[in-house]
Design a protein that fits this description.
Elements (H helix, E strand, L loop, with lengths): L65 H20 L5 E3 L4 E3 L11 H12 L3 H13 L10 E2 H19 L2 H14 L1 H4 L9 E2 L6 E2 L7 E2 H4 L3 H11 L3 H15 L12 E2 L12 E2 L6 H13 L7 H17 L1 E3 L6 E3 L1 E3 L2 E3 L1 E3 L5 H10 L6 H16 L10 E4 L9 E2 L12 H13 L2 H17 L1 E2 L2 E2 L19 H14 L11 E3 L5 E3 L3
Antiparallel strand pairs: 1-2, 3-4, 4-5, 6-7, 8-11, 9-10, 11-12, 13-14, 14-15, 16-17, 18-19
Helix pairs in contact: 1-16, 2-3, 2-4, 2-16, 4-5, 4-8, 5-8, 8-9, 10-11, 12-13, 12-14, 13-14, 14-15, 14-16
């Protein structure tokens, strides 16, 4: 497969580049010392995180190169649109200059985009933007909207995860306090269940948990992608009850037998019975189960490879053998490896873009000797297929692709009309980042840069970035007027880190949750 060789842009290549002079002896951000006569809004210097013995060194010694500067400029463009037209709300609608709320209710603003962006600002050394965001968190943010439909999983990975990572990066006690507050509010979704399976939704004000409006079950990924966040909360607070609650969920699901297929799990699980749903069982690495598999490995890794979590690695190893046995498929005519779905007894040659997280997790597991070396080859081949998602008119990927497995005269990928939209997801560039760090194959940086250029051409608008409706049309990509919070929290962060040196958030010391929030590997 031919790929374009992209030259790394050297520092100082662009006259209008945004730059910050960094003194390596200074912390990443520094607030003015409080004077007793000064206005209330001036913040004190934050305390250092006593768990972080290398405070101030996670940034590494490398200089920001031109690629990173350009990506930082994209973040600033997105942030300016959000802070101008949607500050405090959950997501920006950049074309109409409006906003869309999901958790926020009335004046109780949860500011999902802001929280998702905090650690990205720190990583990009955007000091003044971070100060303003911190001020909002301290003085205006609400963690108690009277909203009965706050999703446990989404709130955990974005809000709790965002606060924890910001605390890890800065040692600022404000973010620890916020993490403990939101953790307390989310916990009843786990503890009020009659079984060990959490409810999917909770009201953060009343702390009453319930099932989603559209059914009686929780999705498997949603109840098993809270372990890293609550585990970290126990670590930074010294109180084990958070970790005990989520480990009991993982233990329960590990012991379930009915419904599993060689380690693969169904989409749905019932909090009342504690069992997997028996109706219309589908096995997939995509929506509704994806991050279950991710956290099986990452929770063990995050724990400092603690034997308490060895059962999760064993479940991960078994499930990956199940993937190889039941979900691997090969396209015609170019023999691309993809991860399909098993619907009942039928194999479906369908793959969500969400599945593209998998190569990165596989590569990390190989690096830690928890999967054999052949799995690195599998990871690289799957990521090649993920790259094929981007071989479109716009260079942006559809949400879903189907694959040709039986006709050499047809193209390998078959993108259905309903699936041609792109919400600028991060999973493929996430895997580019891991594979670059672990293999140093230049093509991953090349592909990431091609993706960034496509974002600039087809998703950038005057006041931010927008999802598009048709990746197959250069002339009519049909902007959707929505900028997801994860575009700032994940997509641009992984792009920036793809071009960083290995000593910026080194993988031996940091692990990213499924919303790209970096957590310290526990010692």
């Amino acid at each position: 497969m031919h790929h374009v060789q992209v030259r790394m842009i050297p520092p100082d290549a662009e006259a209008d580049a945004i730059r910050f002079e960094i003194d390596p002896e200074e912390p990443e951000y520094e607030f003015e010392q409080r004077d007793e006569n000064s206005p209330e809004e001036i913040e004190p210097v934050p305390e250092k995180n006593h768990h972080d013995t290398s405070y101030g060194h996670w940034r590494g010694a490398g200089r920001e190169n031109g690629n990173m500067t350009a990506i930082k400029g994209a973040f600033l463009h997105a942030w300016k649109g959000y802070s101008t037209y949607a500050l405090g709300h959950d997501m920006l609608k950049p074309l109409s200059h409006r906003y869309e709320d999901w958790f926020t209710k009335g004046n109780d603003q949860m500011a999902l985009t802001l929280i998702d962006s905090l650690d990205t600002m720190l990583i990009m050394n955007l000091t003044s933007e971070f100060k303003e965001a911190r001020m909002f968190v301290k003085n205006r943010l609400s963690l108690e909207p009277d909203n009965a439909r706050v999703n446990l999983f989404e709130c955990t990975i974005r809000v709790l995860g965002g606060f924890i990572s910001t605390y890890y990066l800065t040692g600022d006690e404000l973010f620890k306090e916020k993490a403990l507050d939101i953790g307390d509010r989310l916990l009843p979704a786990i503890t009020s269940s009659k079984s060990s399976v959490p409810y999917s939704d909770i009201n953060l004000r009343t702390r009453v948990a319930k099932q989603p409006a559209w059914g009686s079950s929780s999705s498997t990924s949603e109840v098993t992608t809270i372990q890293m966040e609550f585990g970290a909360l126990s670590y930074i607070s010294g109180d084990r009850h958070w970790d005990d609650a989520v480990r009991s969920v993982s233990r329960h699901i590990s012991r379930l037998v009915a419904g599993k297929l060689d380690g693969l799990v169904p989409l749905w699980i019932d909090p009342k019975s504690g069992e997997f749903s028996k109706n219309g069982i589908t096995y997939t690495m995509g929506a509704r189960t994806d991050s279950y598999y991710e956290y099986l490995f990452k929770r063990w890794y995050q724990s400092g490879k603690n034997s308490e979590y060895s059962f999760m690695v064993q479940d991960f190893q078994e499930s990956m053998e199940g993937v190889k046995k039941h979900l691997f498929g090969f396209t015609q005519p170019n023999n691309f490896l993809f991860v399909g779905e098993k619907v009942g007894s039928r194999f479906s040659p369908k793959m969500d873009h969400l599945v593209c997280f998998l190569p990165g997790t596989l590569a990390l597991a190989v690096h830690e000797n928890k999967l054999g070396p052949e799995w690195l080859e599998h990871a690289e081949k799957i990521l090649e297929t993920c790259h094929q998602f981007y071989v479109t008119e716009t260079g942006l990927a559809p949400e879903i692709s189907y694959f040709n497995i039986d006709n050499p005269a047809k193209p390998d990928l078959n993108i259905h009309t309903a699936d041609r939209f792109s919400i600028l997801r991060p999973e493929t560039v996430e895997s580019y980042f891991y594979l670059w760090r672990l293999t140093k194959n230049q093509k991953y940086r090349d592909w990431g840069w091609e993706f960034f250029q496509s974002l600039e051409k087809f998703a950038r608008v005057q006041d931010g970035y927008t999802s598009i409706s048709n990746v197959e049309s250069r002339t009519k990509p049909a902007p959707k007027d929505k900028m997801e919070s994860f575009f700032l929290g994940e997509t641009l962060k992984y792009l920036y880190l793809l071009f960083s040196d290995d000593d910026m958030l080194p993988l031996s010391e940091w692990v990213f949750n499924t919303e790209a929030h970096p957590f310290r590997v526990q010692k």
